[in-house]
């Protein structure tokens, strides 16, 4: 973690911390009063996004062989059952991973954000973050500009700059746009309806357990 001054808040983002078994205890040893933020989305979409990332990495490092389709990787060829040991599936079992964190941290230390809403109304999720971190509310709708090509909002940031003209110094605001990189928003393969149904049935009990633990529900029956 980078050092921070008393008036600063340091934020560190590593998606894999949520699922790595050894991390909750280590984080607790590091700072037991830390605030944690978890962004979740429909576990089926999370699993497919994870698959897309693994497939991309596979072709980056291998010149021969094929990675296979999501269905080939995640569903047993003979029985059609979900392969629980496939990493994108395993990592999407939110209730299991949350359990490990809850053995070390109080629920009030964990903010759960809605990943679907983060994409369509990021300012709403950011307000939750500001409240949770007890920061003055500064982020508003106008800070976001929708990027049609990417299908995501970009963040508009400004910084004060001093410019010299022939007659005077001028204070001006320089606006810049900060957008998500190329590895975000990659196309997902379309799943066969039977495969999607099998995934829905598989994840449903895990989702229910997760909703019970967090005291909130998400619309993931799709
Ligand atoms: N700010 C924001 N808003 C909405 N969605 C977002 C955001 N940041 C990341 N994502 C989506 O999360 C998916 C994985 O990205 P991550 O950054 O978490 O993963 S990783 O750091 O690459 O492991 C990946 O999902 P898909 O694009 O659907 O595959 C990202 O697009």
Automatic annotation (TrEMBL):
Q: Which UniProt keywords apply?
A: Disulfide bond, Glycoprotein, Transferase
SUPFAM superfamilies in the record, alphabetically?
Answer: P-loop containing nucleoside triphosphate hydrolases
InterPro entries in alphabetical order: NST/OST (IPR037359), P-loop_NTPase (IPR027417), Sulfotransferase_dom (IPR000863)
Give all residue intervals belonging to the Sulfotransferase domain: 30-204
Binding-site list for 3'-phosphoadenylyl sulfate: 41, 49, 153, 184-188
Which Gene Ontology molecular-function terms are recorded? [heparan sulfate]-glucosamine 3-sulfotransferase activity
Task: Name the chain's protein.
Answer: Heparan sulfate glucosamine 3-O-sulfotransferase 5
For this chain, the annotated S-S bridges are: 154-179
